[in-house]
Recover the amino acids of this structure.
């Protein structure tokens, strides 16, 4: 009897496989990092073949650690870094180019050209997104324009496009021997090519961007009882298991946090930082710089939508201090270093490395450190790095309140950075509401597992998943209002210094 569900969580810096039991507890996990490729300033790439190779290894590792074979796994779910575009050949299985990562800014001229007459919001009423380098549609256009022979192959139907979810599902279900080319509504909503109302590809936008329809995957529910396909008997799972759950990473975390009711929100602290507010079956347009996006679709039930605030750089800033400046030896060292000082020493770090995302959407912005004096030391740098994530989250929460009118009573949090106690306390102080960490903080993988398990009846109702959610720790805001008044005002001033850097 199948007692577990497996989830593949393919993120910006690593790939992991986690196996969960019916109580939503992690039975095993295996994780491997992959290379970050920077061909030139502003360009970020991944080797899709390396990602698939690492995916196979983490699957085998998690299965071995759990002591389970394919017969013990009821279903497989996928969650992935969204907006990262990969194009590969249907016959050879080889990518035409490295995957272009969501942080990459090379499509700024394409976006400017598309918005020259009608502006950045040219397609927003249909796709919920501004014209920005973040999304994968313009990345495909760049590949078609710059990779010799790709457009001809695409028009013949030999070149396939997808976010990383499509690439993994295609390989898991057979690859060149008949792999399934699909995506779900959440990943499709991040391409700038899907009409939110119909959840179908928008032919007019595809024509404007010059993207052949034959390249695109079939859009399916996030939890699909009709099954996307089955893992290969000779593949990494070692048997045929239904692959039937697929969610972009932030929507997966929303499902993992069981934010199924209108008005519930979560914030995920990873490479970037992403807050999602469930708006139910209603499409809520944003007038405050947020994204209107799909939240999930379970089987034949109506699509559920969300407002999202996307922040490009959160945990990536800690990695930058470690890898580029060598200021710390490991990411975990940041908290101890920040504790050596009482405050930020007057400095503010605005990490607009890829421009500013929500709520500004300024591709002309670049990162700045302001307020420098001789007094500032390494500890202040560490403190300002952590505070940057908290301030950016406050900006997004303010925008959500303006758009939705929802007054959050508490914020559910997840992701790697939620184990940083100093950051979580400062986050509560800046927001003025409690910050709540669940028992399972890696909710992204759990959400993918829920989507797959619900599709095959492993979990029969949403209430069964809600029963698995529990509080690990709560941070209450302090009585001192300086973080949410004076300090936050200084942060807003610092943000303006990033504008208009790129001509």
């Amino acid at each position: 009897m199948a007692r577990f569900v497996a989830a593949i969580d393919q993120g910006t810096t690593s790939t992991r496989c986690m196996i969960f039991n019916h109580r939503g507890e992690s039975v095993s996990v295996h994780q491997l990092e992959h290379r970050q490729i920077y061909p030139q300033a502003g360009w970020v790439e991944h080797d899709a073949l390396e990602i698939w190779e690492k995916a196979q290894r983490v699957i085998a590792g998690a299965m071995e650690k759990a002591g389970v074979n394919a017969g013990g796994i009821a279903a497989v779910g996928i969650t992935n870094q969204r907006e990262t575009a990969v194009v590969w050949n249907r016959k050879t299985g080889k990518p035409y180019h490295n995957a272009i990562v969501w942080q990459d800014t090379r499509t700024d001229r394409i976006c400017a050209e598309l918005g020259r007459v009608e502006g950045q919001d040219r397609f927003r009423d249909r796709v919920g997104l501004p014209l920005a380098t973040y999304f994968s549609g313009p990345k495909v256009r760049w590949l078609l324009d710059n990779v010799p022979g790709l457009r001809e192959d695409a028009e013949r139907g030999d070149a396939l496009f997808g976010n990383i979810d499509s690439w993994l599902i295609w390989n898991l279900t057979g690859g060149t021997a008949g792999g399934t080319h699909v995506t779900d509504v959440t990943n499709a909503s991040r391409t700038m090519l899907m009409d939110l109302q119909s959840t179908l590809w928008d032919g007019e936008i595809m024509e404007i961007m010059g993207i052949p329809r034959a390249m695109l995957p079939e859009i399916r529910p996030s939890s699909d009882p009709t099954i996307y396909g089955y893992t290969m008997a000779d593949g990494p799972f070692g048997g045929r298991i239904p692959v039937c759950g697929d969610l972009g990473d932030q929507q997966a975390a929303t499902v993992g946090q069981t934010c199924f009711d209108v008005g519930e929100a979560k914030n995920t602290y990873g490479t970037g930082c992403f807050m999602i507010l469930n708006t139910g079956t209603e499409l809520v347009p944003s007038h405050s710089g947020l994204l209107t996006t799909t939240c999930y679709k379970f089987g034949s039930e109506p699509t559920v939508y969300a407002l999202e605030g996307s922040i490009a750089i959160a945990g990536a800033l800690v990695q930058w201090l470690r890898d580029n400046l060598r200021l710390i030896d490991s990411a975990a060292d940041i908290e101890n270093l920040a504790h050596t000082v009482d405050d930020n020493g007057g400095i503010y770090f605005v990490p607009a490395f890829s421009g500013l995302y929500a709520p500004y959407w300024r591709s002309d912005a670049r990162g700045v450190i302001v307020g420098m004096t001789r007094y500032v030391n390494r500890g202040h740098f560490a403190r300002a790095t952590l505070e940057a994530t908290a301030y950016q989250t406050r900006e997004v929460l303010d925008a959500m309140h303006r758009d939705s009118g929802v007054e959050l009573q508490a914020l559910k949090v997840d992701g790697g950075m939620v184990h940083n106690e100093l950051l979580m306390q400062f986050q509560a102080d800046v927001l003025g509401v409690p910050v709540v960490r669940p028992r399972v903080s890696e909710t992204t993988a759990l959400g993918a597992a829920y989507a797959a398990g619900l599709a095959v009846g492993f979990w029969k109702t949403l209430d069964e998943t809600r029963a698995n959610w529990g509080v690990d720790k709560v941070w209450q805001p302090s009585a001192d209002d300086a973080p949410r008044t004076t300090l936050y005002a200084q942060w807003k001033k610092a943000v303006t210094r990033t504008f208009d850097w790129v001509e």
Notes: The mean pLDDT is 94. The radius of gyration is 22 Å.
